[in-house]
Amino acid sequence: MIEQRLSHQRGTGDHGWLHSRHTFSFAGYRDPQQVGFSDLLVINDDRVAPGRGFGAHPHNNMEIISYVLEGALEHKDSMGTGSVIVPGDVQLMSAGSGVTHSEFNHSKNDNVHFLQIWIVPAERNTPPGYQQVSVAEEEKRGKLRLIVSPQGDAGSLQVRQDMRIYAGLFTGDEQQTLRLAADRYAYIHVARGSINVNGVSFNAGDGARVRNETALTFAQGNDAEVLVFDLRPLEVNHPQR
Predict the structure, then answer these.
(1) Model confidence at 119: pLDDT above 70
(2) Mean pLDDT score of the chain, rounded to an integer?
(3) What is the distance between the alpha carbons of residues 6 and 132, in angstroms, rounded to a whole number?
(4) Per the count of CB atoms within 10 A, which of 21, 79, 141, 194 is most buried?
């Protein structure tokens, strides 16, 4: 079963310098029917004005993934890590027992557009950590490339939870099928463009909870960029953060 959540159904946040769309409950957006899915707690679709951003703030016991779609995002944290991530880069910060970080638009002229994703970890109060990888476009072109996994398989980032994230780019005749184990859930997020999944049409910003499906076929893309989350079969209402 594919249960769609369309782009316009998401929560919104408009702070002038920051325009956000919230797939799940976050900050001032509260919907008791949209409090994560399995271990996936947050997908925020953020656009940040030039030179603006989030000052130093703390996190704990969360796996935080940043995926840049346009522009450049500058990151600094209390572990001494500093980096600028651009399209193709994937960043994973394991907040663990506690970390402070900041995120700013690196450009003084152009917006940065990125997804911030939160995953609930399997263990609490572990040592914090930072990882980053760059994935070339050809590795995602017409296929689903593993970018996050529990063991860091195939050059992916290692997350502290039983879940996997795939990223793909599809247009024209490009097509890919992802097989799912019978006892798994999935979440689809279309970051941009449009695509057909198992006969269901998706546009930019659309997402879907997936239950009781053993295969997802991505086809008929129009400049589509998609993320797919392979998740434990949990129906959990996480505490809102």
Answers:
(1) yes
(2) 95
(3) 30
(4) 21
Say whether 152 sits in a helix, a strand or coil: coil
Location of structure tokens 């998740």: 231
Distances (CA, A) of 32 to 53, 78, 90, 131, 144: 28, 33, 30, 32, 32
What's the predicted TM-score (pTM) here? 0.96
Going through 87-212 in order, the beta strands assigned E by DSSP cover 89-94, 99-105, 112-119, 129-134, 144-149, 157-158, 164-170, 176-179, 185-197, 200-203, 207-210
Query: Rounded to an integer, what distance in angstroms lies between the CA atom of residue 86 and that of residue 73?
Result: 7
Joined together, the tokens standing for residue 103 give 């995120």
Q: How far is CA 8 from the centre of its chain?
A: 18
Strands of the 11-14 sheet, one edge to the other: 11-14, 18-22, 40-48, 112-119, 63-70, 89-94, 129-134
CA 54 to chain centre: 18
Length reported for the chain = 241
Distance CA(143)–CA(136), nearest Å, equals: 12
